[in-house]
Amino acid sequence: MKARPFLFVLIFIASMMSPMVDSFVGTAMAEDTVVCCDSAEVDLHLLGSASSGSMSPFSQDLTDTTTAATIANAVTSEETVGKWVLPNVWPGTIPANTWTVSIKYEVTDAASVQVNATATLKIGSQTFSDTTDPGSSFLAQGTGTLTFDIDVDATSISDKGAIELTLTARSVVFTLPTGDAKLEFLWGSEDSDSTIEAVIPLFDLTLLEPEVEGSEVYFSVVIDSNWGMDVLSKSDSLVMRVGGTVLDDDPILTTLGDGVRVTWTWQGAKGGIETVTLEIRLTIEMGSEALSGSTTFEIETFDSSGGTGTYYPPEEPLKTSGDGSPLSITGTFSLDSLDGKVQLQRETRIEIGGEMAFWMRWGMDHIGDEVTTLSPVLKSFDAGAVSDDDRVSRTIEDSEEVEFKKQMLSRLSTYYLFEGLGFDVEELLGYKTKDFDALYFDLDLNGESNVVNHPVTLIITSTKVLDSGVRIRLLEEFIRVQPSPLWSGYSLSLSGSTTAMTSFAGAAVNPSGVISVSHSRLPWGESLSIEGENIEQDEEFRVMVTPTNSPTHSPLPLLLMVILALGLGFVVALRLARNRARKVLYIELVLIPLVAFIHFFAYPPLFVGGAVGTSVLIWWLTAVTSPRSRITLAEDAITLTTPVIPCPACSTPNPVMSPERPLRFACVGCERVIKIVA
Predict the structure, then answer these.
(1) In the prediction, which pLDDT does 12 show?
(2) How confident is the model at residue 21 (pLDDT cuts 50, 70, 90)?
(3) Taking the CB of residue 77, how many other CB atoms lie within 10 A of it?
(4) What CA–CA distance (Å, rounded) separates 82 from 66?
(5) Which domains can be identified in the chain, with CATH numbers?
(6) Which residue from 50, 237, 306, 602 has the fewest beta carbons nearer than 10 Å?
């Protein structure tokens, strides 16, 4: 009984403290508010074939290839030119307005063509149409645009409703045709962009009630549409303003029902209760009017550490908004000789930033989480040694990092890289993971262990023993092309080296103009670098090498053979020119730096040998074709009165040193015997 007053005191204190504890979480007085949009002006681009075409509000869906419907003969009865459908229109009201249909055309081999055409719009159950006027039915030779102004009455369209455009021609007559006269209607490409200027409901923009955590406030907008991620990936921009100031930090993307939730972190709160104005602006096409909406919220914040500076979503974040994340591939590789074979060792560093880095960090913090909404890639990780206290802590604990590396090494590497990151492992590393003699995974959080938008680096170390002289693929385009790109483009920087007794023979890249390969050869080994910047996800390339320990390819043996061949060749040339002028021969020593240049830039041994052989041949030809040397005698050996006789064979002057007759002596030039009788 005596303990009861004390218990009542504890209860009273707890009841007084609970609002204080809750206050540090912060509050927001508001409700979710739909701020946009009933209907909006939009250009619907015509795409696809004439028989089953489609429409899209996104110019990014245009291709480089133009689709054409050709009329090559006069038409006297109604003929369908093309049909295009926009399915799954967002439900809402379509106001009374005039829609403009613009169809590109080209007339060839005729002065003009007279066209009686009709454009028919079917919106839900309603049908509207327009026919060419007599004054505009003459289409001149060349290219132009045929337009139809279709008056559309106010109507409504239900969920999953469709808009359909049909273009028909009832009469086509060519004027002054020459050769194969024809009329082509064109669409589907940037050069031939045929459109419908329409006013339709596109999506709903809903500003959610802000979430407050200490001094941090999380503002979210939900985009509900039938285009899903395309609204983000193919639109021009999405901007959130708080009190007129743009939030520049990268938002966090998650799904909410059938919509996409985009959340920004705001750290500009003054503390306490304040009213803020939010504005969201979505621009579908560059140059078009932005669709926007705004509302006000009352929030209460406190001066505390709050969160990590980045919204931590309860749902798995999306990997991309469509712009893609930055990616950098760096690394080193080396070649060594091993028991008659060659051993290739590689360290590949994959540095990932942006939304993909946040997705990876969030996934590591959910290792072993039994939530069923996780994607198959993240759900494939077992809990292992990760405890409940470590999981979902907003920080990547040591146990989570260890477990991630352990499971990547044991069984998940190919699946995670392929499905999670969109990499083809075999093309990135040259071989399947199971084919390596040794393989290790490491992780570098780059100094940040929190689940925030900060780069993550995967480090893959591999070893593979290869047969000497067998050509292999060192690297190939490894990005799996995605409809909504995971990567905004990537950079590539790899450097390799060999020992003095091994070689990357025949290193070459094909057929990319973006990737460059630099190959050099020094006595102690070769260097090979592979570089590229701003590489697109669909860029095709392949880097091939032939690892070998052949003496004719290896740097040191090849250099010794070159030195020996040049040395012997020049000695023979000197021997051939022992009685001839050698000035030109000495000048031709400039061929040695040329051979050294070919050797340094790792040209194939055949080229190096050809350069050596050509140099030696030039020396020999010079040696045997140089003029004979003219002997200059010392002043004490010949006087002005000493008779001189030219050699009948080579015309070399020869002093006659004796009055004896007959006299025989050898020519100082050609060594032929000269006989003087008198």
Answers:
(1) 37
(2) very low
(3) 7
(4) 14
(5) 21-36+205-301 (2.60.40), 40-200 (2.60.120.260), 325-548 (no CATH), 555-625 (no CATH), 644-676 (no CATH)
(6) 237
